[in-house]
Amino acid sequence: MHALFWAIAASLAGFAFGVFLATLHTRRRAAEQLRQVRDAERRVRAAERLAEIGSMTGGLAHEIKNPLSTIGLNAQLLAEGLDEIEADEHDKARLTRRVDALTRETERLRGILTDFLDFAGEKKLSPAPTDLNELVSDLADFFHPQADKEHVRLRVQLSSNPVVVPVDAPLIKQALLNLMLNAVQAMSGAEPAQRELLLRVETDSQETERAEVSIRVADTGPGMDEETRESVFRPYFTTKAGGTGLGLPTARRIVEEHGGRVELHSDPGRGTEFTLSFPLGSA
For the whole prediction, is pTM greater than 0.70? Predict the structure, then answer.
């Protein structure tokens, strides 16, 4: 009888301990679920707040851009008027310099706002079957005068076969142009004979559902250190005087909107290469 008592007691104790563990687990799981729900709610509120701020800043940029255009127009009219008035040449030259400075700063601010609106605005894609060979070839023809002016040798390597993917051609050209301008600026300190910009279209040799097509933009500039590589796609980060720091983030956003990705390979003294990759079934 005594042994039976202890057996029953042990069973009850084990059952109670099991219930305790189950309850503890249930409470912990409920607490974790509550934490996840609250985190999700905070993320939703943060996203809504960011969207609200984005809308406000976009509207503010538009409101600033319109009077800037008026200021620029009036500065132009003022410059034309200065040419017609009779005044001391020294005073006239001084006023002309000030008006020219006003015009330059107005244009600079308008450029900053244009870049911001382009980066922050919604990208509405209009994809259509596009041969990337033709797209890159057309863009190279357009860019050749700029490359020649900067003493940059522009080379193009196209795929041996047509590479047709559904993309928004003007937006892809914009992304590539941002990268090409960035490359030319990066090479400005190199000897002219060492400045080379390569555009190359490649297709994935493997016939798989994830087959990709890539456009590579490679330069022979100074390259980037690790800190720069980690920051280069951050909005407003720039290593160039007068740069807005939105060209590369905008390029990456355009590619990602097409379901693609941008990869960066760069080392100090070894140039920089951006690879824009698109799945063959993109957009």
Answer: no
